[in-house]
Amino acid sequence: MNIQMVDLKTQYQNISAEIDEAVLEVIRSTQFINGFAVKDFQKALEEYLGVKHVIPCANGTDALQIAMMALDLQPGDEVIVPAFTYVATAEVIGLLQLKPVMVDVDPETFNVTPEAIKAAITSRTKAIVPVHLFGQSADMEPIMDIARHHGVAVIEDNAQAIGADYTYTDGRIAKTGTLSDIGCTSFFPSKNLGCYGDGGAMFTDNDDLAEKLRMIANHGQSRRYYHDRIGVNSRLDSIQAAILNIKLRHLDAYNANRLLAADRYDEQLSQLSGITCPARSRFSTHVFHQYTLKAANGMRDHIVQQMQAKNLPCMIYYPVPLYAQKAFESWVPEGYSLPVTAQLCDEVFSLPIHSELTPDIQAVIIDAVSEAVESF
Ligand SMILES: *Cc1c(COP(=O)(O)O)cnc(C)c1O
Predict the structure, then answer these.
(1) Which of 65, 93, 188 to mutate to test the pocket of ligand 1 (most atoms within 8 A of CB)?
(2) Model pTM greater than 0.85?
(3) Three-state DSSP class for 185?
(4) Which domains does the chain carry?
(5) How many CA atoms does the CB half-sphere of 126 hold within 13 Å?
(6) Does residue 84 contact residue 344 with C-beta atoms inside 8 Å?
(7) Which of 55, 80, 83, 255 has a 20 to 30 A CA-CA distance from 40?
(8) Ligand 1: distance of its center to the CA of 318 in Å?
(9) Are 339 and 104 in contact (CB under 8 A)?
């Protein structure tokens, strides 16, 4: 049995007729750049998310960068980010000569908390970038309240949670990525909605911001050969858009399968002593981009070693806090540490989860984790 973190091959085989036809249609049309496929996908995603504007771009990191550029910030302006996330969230902040201010996360949901954000706000804070980590929403209602109170913009990093629903206290439900000024996502192949290469998009309900985002993604161009500002060249490839347009129709089913797989893991793994299964927040559905557990007191490293010895996939997302990364040295005060982030980097491990995961494959993984726990 060849078990992987994600099984893109089986997923493709199950929809290959549709995908092949869609790809060939683009090739036959020769509309390779911003052709019908990009427009069709943009419309379909706007409808799915219930958002006014989707602006496709080349990848998730570009989406974050373009979103940040659209806020017209000044060098040295502070941007609050969780310290427990993928590097791209904070990388673009440094790239634009802004100052990443890293804050702690919730030990159960792994998401940045409104309290941590509130405590980090200063007069120089200009933006907040909550990340919907591993597939469920950060608590956006209080985060947006804090941001509005201080006149600060919010960009959601929704690369790991496309399709998740956030419930407001009044019962209203909305998709993650549409809860702030700008939502950003990635269509990297292993994401919940992944293409067969690189891709990304931004979402907004704000017409002015949408125009700005489109302009920045297209060389700062207002009309052809008239450049009003410095931009970038960041396009979603037409062939990738055609693939995404097919896969979007399957997204809810894919996410439902991930949830079923997570339920099966929970049932077996929650009985192991010293293991904590992923928590589910009360205000968000979970689309399980990752199934991430905790094991304390050195057991995490033992489990990872045992899994590796059996050639079974098991990953650590993320082993190093952002503030401990060399790349961010110049922005981080000497000796800076955040207790929850530091502890999570020592305790978390992620097991395979994807839309094609079956109970028999999970049984092999569950047995291996159980044996590792017993032998610790
Ligand atoms: C994948 C990911 C990104 C970056 O997406 P790319 O398309 O690889 O550039 C950004 N943030 C988070 C949280 C991610 O998981």
Answers:
(1) 188
(2) yes
(3) strand
(4) 8-103+110-245 (3.40.640.10), 250-374 (3.90.1150.10)
(5) 17
(6) yes
(7) 255
(8) 13
(9) yes
CA 191 to chain centroid, in Å, comes to: 8
Q: Please give the C-alpha separations between residue 198 and each of 59, 129, 178, 185, 296, in angstroms, as whole numbers.
A: 5, 22, 22, 11, 36
Q: Alpha carbon 136 to chain centroid distance?
A: 9
Tell me the CA–centroid distance for residue 322 and ligand 1, in Å.
15
Structure tokens of 342? 């530091």
Ligand 1 pocket: which of 5, 64, 93, 157 to mutate (most atoms <8 Å of CB)?
157
- pLDDT tier for residue 1 given thresholds of 50, 70 and 90: confident
Q: Which residue has the tokens 């489990």?
A: 303
Q: Whose CA is closest to atom 5 on ligand 1?
A: 60
Class of residue 197 by CB neighbours under 10 A (exposed 0-12, middle 13-18, buried 19+): middle
